[in-house]
């Protein structure tokens, strides 16, 4: 009887030591994670033709793991296209375009077609990835600035 008890005690102690070692390894590995916030992930630039994008319509593309949208604006502006990250002020929800305004599907924050917040009290506008237009705005290069 005591032989079985001692065997179980040793097994329990070994399991406890192994659990403590695994717990410490997880804690230290999470503390010592390399913070890549200062480094920018460089993806290849994306070239898109805008000839088929009708006025008042959107197109989407994935760049650097983020959804980027291109809106052919309805309103009269210098640039007929607006390129922006498809994330509202919540940072997690995509934007919905109803033909006139962009709306964050989580918080309800609304933006005009220039990406400016139109809700009272909101000051943060939509952000745009680096991009530029070529050939009289018939193409856009996302991922590079002019």
Describe the structure.
The structure is a single chain. By secondary structure, this protein is α+β, with helices and mostly antiparallel strands. The protein folds into 2 domains: 1-33; 46-142, Rieske [2Fe-2S] iron-sulphur domain (Rieske Iron-sulfur Protein, 3-layer Sandwich), CATH 2.102.10.10. It contains 1 helix and 9 strands. It has one helix at residues 2-31, and strands at 46-49, 58-63, 66-72, 81-85, 95-97, 102-104, 110-111, 131-134, 139-142. The strands form 3 sheets. The protein has a 3-stranded antiparallel sheet with strand order 1-9-8, with no helix packed on it. A hairpin with a 5-residue loop joins strand 6 (102-104) and strand 7. The chain is elongated, with a radius of gyration of 26 Å.
What's the arrangement of secondary structure elements?
Layout: H1 2-31, E1 46-49, E2 58-63, E3 66-72, E4 81-85, E5 95-97, E6 102-104, E7 110-111, E8 131-134, E9 139-142
Antiparallel strand pairs: 1-9, 2-3, 3-4, 5-6, 6-7, 8-9
